Amino acid sequence: MKITESAFAGSLESSDLLVQIEPSSEGGLFIDLESSVEKQFGQAIRKTALDALEKMGVTSARLTLQDKGALDGVIRARIQAAVLRSTGEETIDWSRL
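Predicted structure:
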């Protein structure tokens, strides 16, 4: 999937995260993470985010995550929503995810 515009998903409520995705002018995937638990779980959050993007076929994007203690399922769901909003596609093959 090609990221064509900036999009958001999620919130800054407890146990959630705010995701912003935008096209990357450099190519490749870049993740900016802000989290109060980054020292303990930063690597796991980044891995979950990269996995979600790869499963959706995103190869070039800048992802900004503001984490408030979200679990893996929430991270994946918010990234999926942001990707769909940023591509303009209305349907997705959920069996790939």
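Summary: The mean pLDDT is 92.
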